[in-house]
Amino acid sequence: MRTIIRKATQKDAQATCDIWKVITSERRYSAISEPFTLEQEVDYLNSLSEREAIFLAEVDSEVVGFQSIDRFAKYTESMNHVATVGTYVLPEYRGKGIGKALFEKTVEFAREQGYEKVVIYVRSSNTDAQDFYSGFGFEPKGVLKKQVKIDDTYDNEIFMEMFL
Q1: Burial status of residue 11 (CB atoms within 10 A of its CB: 0-12, 13-18, 19 or more)
Q2: How far apart are CA 46 and CA 62, in angstroms?
């Protein structure tokens, strides 16, 4: 399986929307409960600064996953060294190195952009994601209790960090 990792453009908004539909329909891996519309996704892509990006994973010209990297806090310069990351891979491609390939590209980009630290929030029920991020050196730093409520079911989020 040959995987190509590339930076997303506006033209990729439909592909990421299609992945959001699958991820949100699972109701268990993400705190995002509803897929973004095409307009919302285009707006998001247009809003990204030069220090932010979405990287796509393509297998046989099909987008099968993506990873976003954003500034942790856009409202203050004091946190310009911190990024936040989110990873989304279609179910049939999980556990096949897609997330790893995305993360390697994202970390390369993060270092080029001067980030020193990456933080993530992972649902406490998503132990696979916690293990995935721990494998890269992320460490849990706290629990946000009842942070997510989807279909009247609460889940905690684990706050994790990694220094580059």
Answers
A1: exposed
A2: 22
**Does the pLDDT at position 144 exceed 80?**
yes
**Domains of the chain from N-terminus onward:** 3-117 (3.40.630.30)
Q: Are 84 and 57 in contact (CB under 8 A)?
A: no
Encoded tokens for 154: 């609460």
Coil/strand/helix, residue 92? helix
Task: At 146, list the tokens.
Answer: 């009842």
User: DSSP assignment, residue 30?
Assistant: -
- CB neighbours of 140 closer than 8 A, spacing ≥ 6? 130, 134, 158, 159, 160
The helix or strand, by DSSP H or E, that contains position 7, with its residue range, turns out to be strand 3-7
For 74-92, write each residue's pLDDT tens digit.
Answer: 999 999 999 999 999 999 9
The whole-model pTM stands at 0.93
The DSSP bridge partners found for residue 69 are 53, 85
Q: What does the DSSP assignment read for 54-85?
A: EEEEEETTEEEEEEEEEES-TT-GGGTTEEEE
How many C-alpha atoms does 97 have within 13 Å on its Cβ side?
Answer: 7
